[in-house]
Design a protein that fits this description.
alpha+beta, 6-stranded antiparallel beta sheet, 38% helix
Length: 229
């Protein structure tokens, strides 16, 4: 392969794939900013309905930076994280069967927003070993079309990719579904055999400093139910 061919190849990729990836980033960032606006709206709506009698159960939105936002819901925290990179799907993924993607493969390039469920006490007591769980991820392409993989996120799957554009109502549905799932996803006591032996190092270094690892399903199988639509 001569130098001219190499140069043409580089220029061609920069003018096509690289441009698409930049467009995907800008689309994902714009939609993540919209998500933050909707989170504030959700906070206000639910706190108004909950009233002032017990502020312990009020929602609390926090903007944690350009690519991270949090929503405290009672004893849980939902963390919304936008990945800064653009992704492509492997060739076995269901997305390649979608007519929208078949019409233009560049439509398959997506940014990702992940939603994680943590315990609020993990943040309050700085328990760095505590586990969070991915409960949804939203894939967004350059045109704002999206689909969701997640817990109970019905009607937003791959089959809708190419027909569904993210709007405030779309984000609110995704957020409320994630809230409901996290509230119903209880903290379970780990099996006795998993915690029956503890070392002095763990006793002194973890329990006494409130750093023993805690998560909603530690010691249990965490099923990936309702993830792929």
């Amino acid at each position: 392969m001569n130098n001219d061919t190499i140069k043409k190849g580089i220029v061609g990729i920069l003018q096509t794939k690289a441009v698409v990836k930049q467009d995907v980033f800008e689309s994902t960032k714009a939609n993540f900013d919209l998500l933050k606006t909707v989170l504030q709206k959700v906070e206000k709506e639910y706190n108004t309905q909950l009233g002032a009698d017990d502020k312990r159960i009020h929602l609390l939105f926090e903007d944690k930076g350009e690519f991270v936002a949090q929503l405290k819901v009672a004893g849980d925290v939902l963390v919304f994280h936008m990945h800064t990179n653009t992704f492509e799907f492997d060739r076995d993924h269901e997305v390649w069967k979608n007519e929208y993607v078949k019409s233009d493969e560049n439509n398959s390039y997506c940014g990702v927003v992940n939603i994680y469920n943590f315990l609020h006490d993990s943040f309050r007591y700085n328990r760095e070993n505590d586990a969070g769980y991915l409960i949804a991820r939203i894939f967004i392409n350059k045109e704002g079309h999206y689909f969701v993989e997640g817990k109970r996120q019905k009607g937003t799957g791959i089959n809708h990719f190419g027909t569904s554009i993210l709007k405030p109502d779309s984000w609110q549905n995704i957020i409320e579904t994630a809230i409901l799932y996290s509230l119903e996803f209880d903290l379970l006591v780990p099996p006795y055999d998993d915690v029956k032996i503890i070392s002095m190092m763990q006793m002194n270094g973890e329990i006494l400093s409130s750093k023993m690892q805690t998560g909603k399903r530690l010691g249990f199988v965490y099923n990936a139910d309702d993830v792929q639509q």
